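I'm stuck. Please check this protein.
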Amino acid sequence: MSVTTTAAPTWTPMTSEQREQFDTDGYLVLRGVLSPDEVRHYSSVLDAAHAGHPRASDGSLHLLSAVANCPELVDLIDHPATFPLVWSVLGWNIHIYHSHLDVHPPLTAPKPDWWHWHQDGGRQNRELETDPRPRLSVKLAYWLSDVSRTGRGNLTLIPGSHKTNWLPGPPKRDVPWPTPDGARQVTVNAGDVVFFDRRIWHARSDNLSKITRKCVFLGYTYRWISIRDEVGALPGKPWWARLNPVQQQLLGGVGGSDGDHSWGHYPETTPLYTELLDRGLLDPDHPPLIP
């Protein structure tokens, strides 16, 4: 099932209001991005993945390299309703460095105390020196289940915390500790998308409902940051040739062997640059989009 392409009629850049809210809160909620048919399709893809891969002891699945493992998800990576937010913030010299799909069936009881609060990026958060640390990446979370009520495995975050380097926490992860001040569970419907700054402090609530929690997370960063996903073999897959050039770029399939192109020295060799140029969407008011 093919649902979107970069040839979609319109790409609409992030509005000034969205940019201000994103800079202030560290996240945006996009309502009704996926149609009911799309939700059913992608939900079935996650169901198949859940049935076909080893699961954790609680029955959940956290599967990295989302598109490499489920090529049917590829049209989410440049969806016309969400992808413009990514390049509006990061520009054209980008790829997907980290992605995963999550399936969390209902729990029979709350899990033991464990401190899950974190910023994305791993050692970036130990080794970068500035305060606040740089954004470096953003993430799209496509919700395929109804988490319009709390306690359903909701993305839980602290608005505005993306500019805070450290969050007070327990001396060890298994020590009981109060929920951080200002934390909120994001309530969204199936088909909604949450766009967030990697630095925002976030965690996942326990799913104590009767609904299986399903979500696809796609993380975008600059091409000069290495990809965590397993994408090296993708150009040899039979479905790779059917992807458009921007999709191939996002999955790591564009760039010179010397790595120089990843630095963005040659914009004309980067598909997203030429796509934005052709659409008249390069913007001198925002550094990543300066022509």
Notes: Residues 16-289 form a domain with the Jelly Rolls fold (CATH 2.60.120.620). Residues 36-52 form the longest helix (17 residues). Residues 31 and 181 are 26 Å apart (CA to CA). Confidence is low (pLDDT under 50) at residues 1-7.
